[in-house]
């Protein structure tokens, strides 16, 4: 049975599916307006929060403090540079086995997980040596 979403949440889900990349709430506001589906910024934040609670959307908080939202399709892991702010995706997942253990031992349904490392990228390290 397909989950039913309020109109604002359904609009956001549709746009996130079409974009297929993480986006800030402010940029989502602009994108919805561009598509003639305007929603207020407060409504967008409430809808995103509700979608997070339902396990439909995830938020990635950048080193700048800005949150980027995307649909939960797969686990993603990142290396985040504290100097330049770039985020690099990691394709490996060393915690899937731990997620399964939590599911069994704590009867906890995991929607998704994040794994982020913070440090300095190769380019920023080179700049400090020069």
TrEMBL record:
Its cofactor is Zn(2+); Mn(2+); Fe(2+). It comes from the Bacteria. It comes from Crocosphaera subtropica (strain ATCC 51142 / BH68) (Cyanothece sp. (strain ATCC 51142)). Belongs to the Fur family. This is Ferric uptake regulation protein. GO terms for molecular function: DNA-binding transcription factor activity; transcription cis-regulatory region binding; zinc ion binding. Binds 1 zinc ion per subunit. Keywords: DNA-binding, Iron, Metal-binding, Repressor, Transcription, Transcription regulation, Zinc. CDD domains: Fur_like. Fe cation binds at residues 75, 113. Zn(2+) binds at residues 81, 84, 121, 124. One of its GO terms (biological process) is negative regulation of DNA-templated transcription. The keyword Repressor applies. The keyword Metal-binding applies. Pfam families: FUR.
